[in-house]
Amino acid sequence: MPKFPVDAPQPKVIKALEALGFRLIREGNHIAMERQNPDGSRMPFTMPNHRTIKGSTLRTILTQVGISRDDFLKAYEDA
User: Fold this and answer.
1) How many CB atoms lie within 10 A of CB 64?
2) Is residue 2 part of a domain?
3) For residue 71, with 0-12 CB atoms within 10 Å meaning exposed, 13-18 middle and 19 or more buried, which class applies?
4) Buried (b) or exposed (e) across 9-27, using 16+ Cβ within 10 A?
5) Is there a domain that residue 17 lies in?
6) Number of compact structural domains in the chain
7) pLDDT digits (tens, 9 = 90+) for 21-50
8) The CATH number of the domain where 68 resides is what?
């Protein structure tokens, strides 16, 4: 199993999240993304617009949106 990224490049994180069904909504000081759930609800979140995303920030985002570590790592490796 690949290790969880410590300082993940932001473009690669965005590609991985897009592969998991999220879409980019807004980009400024923070990046806003959301996913449309099958029941019609939306799952929004924001993350800082930095060149790299810290591992702790990434783990918090994944917990908030309900994505498992393994699912993210698979999408991240493919991105």
Assistant:
1) 13
2) no
3) middle
4) ebebbbebbeebebeeeee
5) yes
6) 1
7) 999 999 999 999 999 989 999 999 999 999
8) 3.30.920.30
